């Protein structure tokens, strides 16, 4: 089987020595920062050819799955319009087009629809396209947009005159994608990336019509463990320069009326203090964890903490995630017992109402609310059985109306499916929540193939969301489960803290124990268990199959962060200096050894592994392509089984995979076909 692959050139192994510990890496040669080395590219093409050959028996199934996913989409779908400064804005798809049109309509009778940008035209000559931001100036005369044409998250900014339709010659390169206009619409602020690490670290101001080489540097962050982001306050009076690391943050302010001025510090950073600021009706509103890890909201005139007025106190069991301000109300997004909740408060923090839900596993979120004078508050809702639904709530009366439920074409009906919420006891006694869904008529206790998904990092909560593409698995008898392992923030800040740095191993053991608990509850055939995760969730996959390979028939690892130790020792790549508080700083010998003990690449051993499909992108800026490439090479040389080991390297994409409304489904169809074929053959055969 492996004979059709080119031999791995191991004659020049690379030595990596830290703290007196020498690691020999025979596959280090696969690293090419330029992504142009012919030998490396030839090898990756050979891996792709091998994967294509091994998956050729599933080509018809892949096409069937892809067409199912496409056919569920409304061909001429459009977003819910929102109102801002005299215009209604929306995005709209044309049938068979990959990218939306971005349009606006003046709020007056018989006003024509105005095309702001056609994503299909912008993407016509490239293999990848992503619109980062589209910002119309306060005057409504100019539009600035940030676009990525390579999939490296390096956005270039262009400007269009909305009165004439012409694009200005202004072109700003190598930005994060953030755009904030000055109050006079004469220019905009943006964020430049470090040319080597791609970290966002400088704020610049560009005057329309000027040479970008003459742009003014507004702020520069010297500490490379911080990420920089810009936005405008709710009052539209301030540019907010927000700096954040894993455990601390800092905000600088600049009046949007004086774009050539100097930013002022709101409150200096200190270890362990995370805060965010908004400004509205002459006051600052601060979300801060200074009095507890689950955050509170304070009313302030400035950064003098001793004078802050607490509007919503810290609660031990409830995580305050976000808030949005209106003229006479505040809406807060919270998380309690692993599920999201939205509440309406007055501007002094007194509760007015809680928004009700019905499903046992669901997600609520603050939606697009750009106008604080709007009498309606918009929010989103979804569950494992309910497509994304947008609602408007009358702020005064509490009456709600549905604006749109995402259409799912075909014979889909929510009542065909059942979602459940389980609590699984992990090996240390911790209760781990699991959300799962299946098609009712196909459920047979202990007999269905099972797919378990996990992430567990950065305090990012993996909510029970709806995906129409997932129906292709459920309608073929699969049970889909989300293991809400430690490292996320589903149960509050402590849930995150118990799954990072020296507690990272909890993420992996939680996933394994959750898998066992799901099976013990009767949800799934132990012989047909699959697992999947991407990025940090790919690290999860790599660690789990080193620790418990016998639990899983097949695993799909997407852009997996698997060479963890080597990457965390390399400050030249984006996913390093800003991540020390997440994974730990391996320049400390104890941290070095802890990371090495779970780093998937370092822990590959001579044992049988599950069938494995590894998906990556050559231009990935977050997890460099050579991590999965090296991992696959080392696994192939070490494993003792004859199971499939496949690397699918997209030579045009990056961290998010293929761009485009429909092309995205090609990757999912490949992954599903891989699992479905194994599920069908696993009882009598070990190969596709």
The gist of it:
By secondary structure, this protein is α+β, with helices and mostly antiparallel strands. The chain has twelve helices and 37 strands.
The overall pLDDT average reads 93
Q: How many whole angstroms does the radius of gyration measure? A: 25 Å
CATH architecture of the domain at 15-70 and 411-679: 3-Layer(aba) Sandwich
Would you report the number of β strands? 37
CATH class value of the domain at 15-70 and 411-679: Alpha Beta
**CATH fold descriptor of the domain at 15-70 and 411-679:** Rossmann fold
Number of helices: 12
Oligomer: single chain
CA-CA gap between termini: 13 Å
Helix content: 10-25%
Kindly estimate the percentage of residues that lie in beta strands according to DSSP: 25-35%
CATH superfamily membership of the domain at 15-70 and 411-679 = Alpha/Beta hydrolase fold, catalytic domain
Strand order, largest beta sheet? 30-31-33-32-34-35-36-37
Shape summary: globular
Low-confidence stretches: none
Secondary-structure class: alpha+beta
Largest sheet: 8 strands, mixed
